[in-house]
Amino acid sequence: MKSIAALQNRVTPWSAGLEPTAAELDAIEWEMPLILAERDLLDAQIVTLDRTPTEVDRQRLRRARRRVLAARTALENRAAHLPSSGDAA
Q: Would you say 68 and 34 are in contact if contact means Cβ atoms under 8 Å apart?
């Protein structure tokens, strides 16, 4: 069996540009509350895929949806208070 690892460099050469920049890491950190809330919502939805949701499941889904909405609102409110980077003249 031939290994394709030797051909990997020709397809996707390794470069220092593969690591996220400081700005990208800051953006991820800025959005982390929303990312975590969406992950919790997805987890609650996955639990209910293979069974009929119980009242506890429905409460968990409602709470998770509220957390996502609150995180989105907080993110938008923080972004609204940032100075604009473009000229709005």
A: yes
